[in-house]
Specification:
This protein is α/β, with parallel strands linked by helices and 189 residues long. The protein has helices at residues 18-28, 40-50, 68-77, 96-99, 111-147, 150-155, 157-187; strands at residues 10-14, 33-37, 56-59, 83-88, 103-106. The relative contact order is 0.11.
């Protein structure tokens, strides 16, 4: 489960084209904390220093010092919960199947494209966190239902609170799913 709680989510942008990296930073800076890396090496440094607080990474695939693919591999090999979108001029090949990124955008991308992808990736992250919480609470409920009598469960305020938390998580997951499905539908129209 993600332990992040910054006031604003953090987005890492890695692109060796400075004007483009700065433009993406301008697009996102109003809504997010943005870390801007002007190459793969600098992106790796940010990951070493601030990985625990990076929620989303937007990576160019072709950077001369360290490729976006290598930065992605480092993120995927870490224990950090960071969603990744490749934002690149490289048309995807079948290597995309095993790449391990969450989104793939072909340049040029608009401000709306970047904002949409970051929002979607944050929702996916929230979904994952909530799903993990729900699974844990359901397992706890199942153990208690096996070990305690119906009367004991009915009298327990803590068990009632657990039931309420499960219901709230289920509702939130349904809401996130609906949002994501609507966004996917809108992208294909």
């Amino acid at each position: 489960m993600s332990q992040r709680s910054p006031a604003r989510p953090t987005v890492l942008i890695a692109d060796d084209e400075r004007p483009l990296a700065d433009l993406y930073t301008d697009y996102l800076a109003e809504d997010y904390e943005v870390l801007t890396a002007y190459g793969g090496e600098e992106a790796l440094e940010y990951l070493d220093e601030a990985a625990a607080r990076i929620d989303v990474a937007l990576l160019d695939r072709r950077m001369p010092d360290v490729s976006g693919d290598k930065v992605l591999a480092r993120i995927n090999d870490s224990d950090e919960d960071c969603r990744v979108a490749m934002v690149t001029a490289v048309n995807p090949g079948f290597d995309l199947i095993d790449m391990g990124c969450d989104e793939y955008l072909i340049k040029p991308v608009s401000r709306d494209d970047l904002l949409d992808v970051v929002e979607r990736l944050l929702k996916l992250s929230e979904y994952s966190d909530k799903h993990q919480q729900l699974t844990s609470k359901r397992l706890t409920r199942n153990v208690l239902e096996v070990e305690k009598s119906g009367a004991e469960l009915a009298e327990s305020e803590r068990f009632a609170r657990l039931e309420s938390e499960i219901e709230q998580l289920e509702t939130r997951l349904d809401d996130i799913t609906e949002d994501l499905e609507f966004e996917d539908l809108q992208r294909h129209i």
